[in-house]
């Protein structure tokens, strides 16, 4: 907090991939009272592989068949591909069932 004012200064590290639309979201949620100032700080390599799938029996037991825990590297890669209009391999419907008609057909 700045002395003598009602201004708060918050410093945080935010990945660039998650900063798109951040300023609009902050203004919207604070009714325009807060405005961020984004400054590039540094590069950092994401240690996970975006194309990793479980292969050994131990990995299947720990992560499950589909490795449901979200892979950050894959999430960032897919977000960039969507933004650029490139193909993104993703399932739109998972575990779908037929819709059941409650009324009786005549």
Automatic annotation (TrEMBL):
Domain Elongation factor EFG: 4-50
InterPro entries to which the protein is assigned, alphabetical: EFG_III/V (IPR035647), EFG_V-like (IPR000640)
Signal peptide range in chain numbering: none
GO BP annotations, alphabetical order: cytosolic ribosome assembly
Gene3D superfamilies registered for this protein in UniProt: 3.30.70.240
Molecular functions (GO terms): GTPase activity; ribosome binding
GO cellular component: cytosol; ribonucleoprotein complex
Membrane-spanning residues: none
Superkingdom, taxonomy of origin: Eukaryota
Name of the protein this chain belongs to: EFL1 GTPase
Annotated organism of origin: Pelecanoides urinatrix
Phylogenetic classification of the source organism: Eukaryota, Metazoa, Chordata, Craniata, Vertebrata
Gene: Efl1_1
């Amino acid at each position: 907090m700045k002395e003598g004012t009602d201004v708060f200064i918050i410093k945080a590290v935010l990945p660039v991939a998650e900063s798109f639309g951040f300023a609009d979201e902050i203004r919207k949620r604070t009714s325009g009272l807060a405005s961020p100032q984004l400054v590039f700080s540094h590069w950092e390599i994401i240690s996970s592989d975006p194309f990793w799938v479980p292969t050994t029996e131990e990995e299947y037991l720990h992560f499950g068949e589909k490795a449901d825990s979200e892979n950050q590297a894959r999430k960032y890669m897919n977000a960039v591909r969507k933004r650029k209009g490139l193909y993104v391999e993703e399932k739109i419907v998972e575990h779908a069932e037929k819709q059941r008609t409650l009324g009786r057909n005549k």
